[in-house]
Task: inverse folding
């Protein structure tokens, strides 16, 4: 986001050769910053592609607690059909962070159903609504959360112009490498 503001104002606050953790150009760049293994899906909807990644830790302007369940660091990986589609209209967001405790039990209390990702327990939920701000079209929000065997919590959030089949979202999750 900083790079966007710099482009609009013409004032650079970060040297061009320094990675901006709020707008990383590749998953490899996020892997270089994170203190845990980062994964990306090998399967995703046909019109989606990698857009950018974000790395946050305790030194970030936006502390990771706000998005990462009280973890010391978080990586967010965005996929979209176009760069301007990322703003909650047609995108996938993959949260990844070390989980200090199993928080899935808390999640299911808020709604959702137990499913399985690679044989591990996961929580799935989806809701759809008429999006007045988007011309009255239907927008759906789907979530899938699980912890892998190394203690990393994954959350996939999909904002789509219609429902996504639960099995498709699980297949995307299971393709993460």
Result:
């Amino acid at each position: 986001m900083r790079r966007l503001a710099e482009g609009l104002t013409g004032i650079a606050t970060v040297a061009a050769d320094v990675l901006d953790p709020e707008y990383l150009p590749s998953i490899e760049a996020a892997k270089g910053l994170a203190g845990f293994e980062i994964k990306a899906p090998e399967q995703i909807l046909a019109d989606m592609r990698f857009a950018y990644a974000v790395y946050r830790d305790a030194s970030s302007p936006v502390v990771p607690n706000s998005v990462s369940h009280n973890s010391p660091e978080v990586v967010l990986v965005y996929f979209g059909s176009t760069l301007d589609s990322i703003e909650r209209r047609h995108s996938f967001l993959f949260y990844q962070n070390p989980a200090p405790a199993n928080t899935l039990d808390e999640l299911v209390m808020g709604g959702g159903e137990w499913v399985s990702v690679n044989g591990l327990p996961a929580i799935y939920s989806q809701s759809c609504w008429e999006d007045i701000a988007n011309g009255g079209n239907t927008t759906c929000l789907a979530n899938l959360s699980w912890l892998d065997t190394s203690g990393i919590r994954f959350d996939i959030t999909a904002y789509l112009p219609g429902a996504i089949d639960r099995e498709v979202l699980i297949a995307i999750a299971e393709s993460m490498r």
Notes: Residues 22-174 form a domain with the Protein Transport Mog1p; Chain A fold (CATH 3.40.1000).
